[in-house]
């Protein structure tokens, strides 16, 4: 019997906006089913997997490949129940914003002259063509990085390659060492790559703040004749 993540995968396959993503080898060669089955085994063992199964594929559900104009690559979901909902860095918890997200939003506010948002829910970005994808789509409660070797990373890599090949002009915001390694997958003759250090407070180089990725991304999109992203999370 299929487990909850396998069922979520089947539901994603039926989504109208999934058509472009389903052309990736990850969804064609059985990899997606194999990874989902592996996660379902963890669920059957009694461990709590995050985000909830119905939110595992939120990033590729909310942002069809043909709508992508900005890519933000994260690592894996927040390991605290209630915090993650399937979008990289996005937060729906009830406590203080996670440190990395707080740094990102502080940079956004300073860069664009907006007030610092109280919300950490980045759904509005995703609906505007900002792909917020993690290199692992699942994690176990209290165990950050637990599913990094489950095979999810093939999806992130193939997504970046496909976007680079298919889309005419995309901004790739690559923050931190693991994300920056993916720069090699991007055709820089077509796309803009903005690299920076990770927004985590554990980043001793502190080379994220002041990089102004949001205004730079929008200026480039406008130059290419595309709609800029409204990065504000609140009216």
TrEMBL record:
**Active-site residues, Swiss-Prot/TrEMBL:** 76
Which InterPro entries does UniProt cross-reference here? UDG_fam1 (IPR002043), Ura-DNA_Glyclase_AS (IPR018085), Uracil-DNA_glycosylase-like (IPR005122), Uracil-DNA_glycosylase-like_sf (IPR036895)
Reactions accelerated catalytically: Hydrolyzes single-stranded DNA or mismatched double-stranded DNA and polynucleotides, releasing free uracil
Question: Which residues are in the Uracil-DNA glycosylase-like domain?
Answer: 61-221
* GO CC terms in record: cytoplasm
For this UniProt entry, the molecular function terms from Gene Ontology, in alphabetical order, are: uracil DNA N-glycosylase activity
Fetch the CDD domains from UniProt: UDG-F1-like
Localization, per the record, is: Cytoplasm
Q: Which UniProt keywords are present, listed alphabetically?
A: Cytoplasm, DNA damage, DNA repair, Glycosidase, Hydrolase
Q: Which domain of life is it from?
A: Bacteria
UniProt record similarity statement = Belongs to the uracil-DNA glycosylase (UDG) superfamily. UNG family.
| Stated role | Excises uracil residues from the DNA which can arise as a result of misincorporation of dUMP residues by DNA polymerase or due to deamination of cytosine.
Name it. Uracil-DNA glycosylase
* Species in which this protein is naturally found: Microvirga aerilata
């Amino acid at each position: 019997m299929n487990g909850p993540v396998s069922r979520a995968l089947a539901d994603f396959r039926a989504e109208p906006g999934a058509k472009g993503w389903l052309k990736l080898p990850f969804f064609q060669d059985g990899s997606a089913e194999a990874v989902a089955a592996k996660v379902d085994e963890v669920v059957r063992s009694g461990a709590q997997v995050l985000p909830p199964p119905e939110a595992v594929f939120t990033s590729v559900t909310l942002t069809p490949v043909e709508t992508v104009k900005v890519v933000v690559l994260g690592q894996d979901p927040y390991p605290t129940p209630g915090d993650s909902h399937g979008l990289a860095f996005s937060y729906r918890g009830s406590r203080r914003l996670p440190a990395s997200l707080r740094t990102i939003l502080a940079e956004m506010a300073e860069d664009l002259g907006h007030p610092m948002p109280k919300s950490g829910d980045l759904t509005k970005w995703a609906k505007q063509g900002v792909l917020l994808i993690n290199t692992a789509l699942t994690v176990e409660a209290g165990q950050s990085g637990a599913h990094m070797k489950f095979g999810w990373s093939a999806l992130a890599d193939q997504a970046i390659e496909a976007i680079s090949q298919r889309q005419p002009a995309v901004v790739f915001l690559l923050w931190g060492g693991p994300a920056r390694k993916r720069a090699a997958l991007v055709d820089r003759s077509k796309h803009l790559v903005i690299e920076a250090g990770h927004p985590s407070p554990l980043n001793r180089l502190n080379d994220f703040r002041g990089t102004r990725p949001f205004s730079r991304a929008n200026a480039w999109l406008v130059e290419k004749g595309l709609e800029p992203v409204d990065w504000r999370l609140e009216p």
